[in-house]
Request: fold
Amino acid sequence: MYSSLKENISALKELFANSADLTVREMNLNSSDNKKAAIVTIEGMCSKDTVAISIIEPLLDYKFAQSDSDSMIDEIQKSVLTSSEIVKFNTLEETVMFATSGFALILLDGTKQMLAIGSQGFSFRSVTEPESEVVQRGSREGFTEPLRINMTLIRRRIKSPDLVFETVTVGKNSKTQLMLCYLQKSVSENLLEKVRDRLNGCNLDTVLASGYLSDYLEDNSSKSIFSGVGISERPDTVCGKLTEGRIAILVDGTPSVIILPHLFVEEFQSVDDYSNRPYYASFIRILKYLSFIIAVFLPGVYTAFAQYHPEYFPTGLLIKTSESISQTPLPVTLEVFLITIVYEIMREAGLRIPKPLGHAVSIVGALVIGESAVSAGIISSSTLMVVATAAICSYVTSPMYPTITVLRFLFITVGGLFGMWGIILATAIVLVNMCSKTSLGVPYMSSLAPFSLQSMRDVFIRSSWKKLSKHTIKIQRFSEKEED
Amino acid sequence: MTQIKIPSNRMLITLLICMLPVILLENIKSADKQTFLYEFVSTFVGIAASAVLFCLVYVSQKYTKCADVRCLYRKTVVGSFVTALIYCVYFVWLISYILLKYSDMFSKKFNQNASLFGIGLILLILCAYSSYKGANAIARCALIISVITAVSLLLIFCGNILNIDLSVADFGFSGNPSGFFDVMSNTFSISFTAVICLVLQNKSEKFKLRSVFVLFAAALLIFTAFAFFIRFALGSYAHMQEYSGFLLSKSSLLGSVGGIEGLYLFVSTISVFILVSLCLCCIKKSAFNTNGKHYLLFILPTAILLFCAQNIESVRDVLTNQIILNIMTVVVSLVLPAINLALYRRDTNV
Reply:
């Protein structure tokens, strides 16, 4: 930076290419030589009231005893301003970082030193219940976009000095701020080092959401359709995971928090499980596993049975199914495939179109494509029922929806081509893929394979809190040395 | 290269799954002239012989620390090349043996139009993918499969309980020596697990001796259960037919649900899948000792063998000959390490 205020302002304007949102408020301070000063902010990032009341007003009201610029900067920092967050700096990089983070910058003529005053005041979404993780009993708070608020939501739940937030910046252009969050005494240093290394290896220009980082954080992400990175929008879920030795990554500008390592069995756990009675929670847990199996296998197995092994259907069902199928012009495989694709298109349309039009899509889907197609004899009612059941089941474990969809198509294809034999072989391949997957060196299928009897208290069933609280199972206990 | 770490219990379950194809794809027509006790004794002798072989391999590996090809790599090029080649030939043979048995069962019982070569090749390609993921991933997968397999076998047995007829049972001890030898030879063929264990286990592994006994006790239990149900639930019907394990699943009745041969197909397919994948891993370990994909070249000779077996009857007879397999097993698990030890132990300085 320069000593001259004019040059500093010119340099900043040049740096920001005279961007319209860069505002400079120049003023003369009440000192013996009426020292010139300027307040630089980025419009929309700072609260105008905070800047006026906490910065401009005290600066103009204060009578400076000294006229040396460096001494005046110290005086402003120590005696004039009331703000709790004041940082002194003198480099251009820091200027950009503070200005773009919502700080107000104070520049003084005759010194290279500058002050950054925390006065963030951008508008943001308030803390609301996350739509993707609704619970019946429990907190209604969900993460929101600003990083600091999300940090507060975690800190409020874990009031321990053990809780650490560590700042990391990624994105060459976006300079997105991330917070590594962990419990110092629970986390494994090895896992933490791996996360730091992988974030440092992220060479993206822009990071706008947590999904951008998933590929960098996963072990061999492209080689599996299962995700080794957990995502949650709930602070209570994140806090629960932290106590098990996991690491959370908060990304500025997104309510989705990344949790690492992530295991397969976690896809079937929810906050409600721990609020409900153990018996009911266990029942729901088993129901979720069952739903997952139905969602993945049902259309494929139905295709294989109807096309190659009709003798596997119970007699009554066989008569009805064959009657229904015989009246349709398409082969069963094609029929199942088409209905599933139409369903996926309708689902995608329902997600993307404006809410008021959503009902229209539902009506078109239910009446036109569903009822009319069946009554016109284009598709069979049994096929429609199978696809609909699988679709509903896939929402029970909604975080796994993308995986379930891909697997469903795979099983329909192999079921249609090779029958049950194809389904069995595809199952074997998927199992090997799942078992070979790791998340930060922890096998994705931990608790099941490698098997842990102690973990079973919170896998297919949920034991009582008295049993669960006896010993917290840390994630690092599952770490295994893998083949290269 | 990172040494794999397969815990003892996981290895035990994986090897048990590898034994299943021998039990399920057994094509010996139960001889009606021998009694159950006679069959049990011949099974016991076969399994005991396998257990002895396994223990010998185990002891030689544990106490000499130089029982397989890996210890030769650093010392003698010719020795390691010849040994690696023999191991590879053995595993290619074993893969062909299992795939031919499986394909034969599949084409006879599930799809008569299926080509032996086609089925074998598809399975081989999928197993290649699986072996690429490593023995540890396969072993983890075997853990999950073992649960499904156990449930499937239990369902098959439970579904046949009502069919058991002990009124015609002869619990005496009589039979002919050829039947005894057939059953013994069949059960002894599970000893290929010793070779797999020998190749996959590295020096720091702790495959406990206790696990060997548990493994063979479990194998004896499954063999005996099959023999019991085939003899007393299927009766004389089993004498006329091939693949009595399939018949057992077909005759199974659970309430109003019958014909659960889908479970038999599942268990036999998945166990063959695990075994062939592990064999490919063994080729990788014994021949290349690196993590490259060169070992996948061995799919080619296997595919050629399968193709020849489909078209030339004599090739199929040789490849599916249990006695040849058993002799090869003894050679690669005992004779070859013994020769290696005798020739190179001093050189390897272990």
Summary: Residues 286-436 of chain A form one domain.
